[in-house]
Structure formats: structure tokens, C-alpha cells
Amino acid sequence: MKIEEYLTTLPESILSGEDVQLPKEAFKEIFKLANLNKNDVFYHLGCGDGLGLLIAKEEFNAEKIIGIDISKEKTDAASKLLKEKNYSDVKIINEDIINSHFDDADVILFWFVDYNVLEKMMPKFSKLKQGTRIVTIWGPLPGCLPERVEFPYIMNKVPFSKAKDLKEQLLAIFDVKCIDFVTSWEFAERYTKAIGRDNPENDRFLTIIQSLVIWINAKNLGVSCEDEIPEPIKNYISILKKFFNIEIEHLLK
Predict the structure, then answer these.
(1) Which of 124, 143, 219, 240 could be stapled to 224 by a disulfide with Cβ–Cβ 3.0 to 4.6 Å?
(2) At 191, is the pLDDT very low, low, confident or very high (cuts 50, 70, 90)?
């Protein structure tokens, strides 16, 4: 099957990141990237079980902390976690982020890849006060050049710097002149470690998929370092096809 068909067999919640809980260290790295501090109002859009809110409170002492999630089950879990800590000054809201208001935000953590969500959120983000920092994971905000990157964490700042095209955006994220296999593997591995759990077999598989996607996107945009397909890329494409019946070569243009 083609990789697009394979992805449709996975739960939508996994693809969107909805059911992927970031580990504690990942939140710390994100907050350091955003320079979250005691003067900041922090919003976690899609706050899950509230771990990120707890860390923003206990270790970064943000002035005001708000978590928003559409799942009642998750906001209940977050409320329970924070109640056990007696943190009444951390607010949990159960609603769709598309309907949310966060005009007072200084820092926002936003991990959504659904195009329909992004399309509706970008106008709201663009109207935020100057200096607001928005951190995403893996993918940047559409059409924007990042302010800072510690891949897979990407920070944009209002007002946004617009990218001329996808090439400029891609090279800005990876901070290189061109993307080779080593770069694609390194950055894919960073992503896997950031969201990975105690399943090294699954982590390896995810790294292979992500590294192929990075390199193929670079090749199609004309920013890969190699003119020909590198041997490791050929080998992994072959492995996916032979052992997993996943066909990815058609993505090469």
C-alpha cells in the first residue's frame, strides 16, 4: 500500500497528536525555548492531562496559566491533577480552541497539524499583541519563518515574519544550506525522542518514516544536498516496501 493508505489505518488521534502526551523533559525544553517566566501569561491549547500546566506553574512560575481542551475527560483529569496540588490560580477550560479567547497571552503552546484548525487559528494568532511567542512541534505555523528553533520545537513571534516560499521556510527550520540524509535522520530522531515512550522498536520505525519524509520533501523542493537518491534512502524505501508493504517512492517527484 502507499504510505498515504497506511496513514489512514492509524487512529486520527495519533496522527493529530491528540493522544500523545509529551514527557516532562519535553515541556521543560519548550518553556526554555519560549523563555517562559514569572511575568508571562501562558496558554496551552490542547492541554491534555495538565502536565504542561503543572510544570509551567512549579518550575517556571508563570504569572497566569490557562489550559484549554475540547475533551471533557482530559480537562477533568487536568483539573484533578491541579486540585491535588492546590493550584487554584491555574485555570482549565473545556471548549474548542477555535472558539477560545487568548488575547492576553504572552506564550502559547499549540500542537495541531489539522489544516482546518490551522486555517481558523492563524487569523487569531496574527492579531495577538506584539511579542507573543507561539511554540509548535515538528511543523511551523503556515507560511512563517521561525524566530527560534530547537527542533522539533519551533517558536514564532508576533508579528510574524513571512517566508517567501516553502524552500526558505524549510531551510530556516533546519538552519542549513541544504538537507542531506544525515540531517534528515538527525532531526527525525530528535522528534522521535521528544514524543517517544518506552517502545524502541516503534521509535525506530517512526524515525525511519520521518527521515524519509524530511529528505523527500527537501528533494522535491530542490534543497536536498544530493542530486541522486542516497543509498540509505534507497535501503529504507526498500525495507518499508519489502517487510511492511508500505510504498513511499511515488512521493519523489
Answers:
(1) 219
(2) confident
124-147 burial: b if 16+ Cβ within 10 Å, else e: ebeebeeebbbbbbbebbeebbbb
Burial class (CB in 10 A: 0-12, 13-18, 19+), 43: buried
Distance, in Å, from the CA atom of 47 to the CA atom of 182, rounded to the nearest integer, reads 33
Phi, psi of 60 (to 5 degrees): -125, -10
The 10s digit of each residue's pLDDT in 42-100 is 999 999 999 999 999 999 999 999 999 999 999 999 999 888 888 877 999 999 999 99
Whether residues 195 and 154 share a domain: the answer is no
Instruction: Report yes or no on 172 lying in a domain.
Output: no
* DSSP assigned state of 127: T
User: What count of residues does the chain have?
Assistant: 253
Asked if residue 125 and residue 213 are part of one domain, the reply reads no
pLDDT at position 8 is: 52
| Residue 96 in grid coordinates | 474548542
Distance from C-alpha of 180 to C-alpha of 132, rounded to nearest angstrom: 33
Q: How many domains does the chain have?
A: 2
CB burial class (10 A; 0-12, 13-18, 19+) of residue 65? buried
Q: Among the three residues 162, 190, 206, which one is the final residue of a domain in this structure?
A: 162
pTM over 0.85: yes
